[in-house]
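User: Please write out a complete single-protein record containing the residue sequence and its fold in token form, without commentary.

AI:
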Amino acid sequence: MDSDSDSGLDLEGTSALPRANRFKHQSYKKSLKEVHLPSALDLTKFDHDISDNESHFYLALQQWRQLNLSPAFVQFANKVDSLSISMPILLHNWKDIIDLWQGALDASDNEALIALLDLLNKLAHDLRTTLAPSYADLLEILLRLLPQPILAPALTALLATMSGLFRYLLVPSINLDLLDQTWSSFRAVLPTCNSDVQRAAAEVWGSVLRRLKSVARERAVILMAQNLEGVEDA
């Protein structure tokens, strides 16, 4: 995923664009102003009570199979269905699922992107720190998407997934080095984003600060104070 073309994302056209009123034109920049943390966190709600043998990932996978016909997503869904049919099986196969998810994202268009991001969020919720060995790689992938001109629904899903990754993997960790690395990567990407994306991403980071324990929060504040050049308006 070294470039937009490698990612396979069709950035010019996407089925994620709202079509409720064809006569009401929304510019890309204006649509981004509607993206903020509360709307992103709506996507992190888990409405279904499930048994110990079930997973939110598998339930979401079945729902998306009914809604999403993107070839990249359909191929991914077909491959991971039997690998995630129960929580014990999901736990056993999570590394293979992550590899397949990355491959699907590389080949995805905007239609597939929202579904794939939502499923990663569900996987993080289900498995939490089990995913810790893949945290750095997953964060890098998500951050690479942040500067791309994806439309508001996809950006909202991306912010929700980043929030979930931070909430379920970063915050429970007491590793300050991991916090340092996360801020360094996050900070490096922000100046490459437009101001509205910076603002929305900053809201996600603010939610991280509120959840961190006092020692980690103090460290995060120090890191931010040391280097905010270029993102003062975020």
User: Anything to note?
Assistant: The CA atoms of residues 42 and 106 lie 26 Å apart. The longest helix spans residues 87-106.
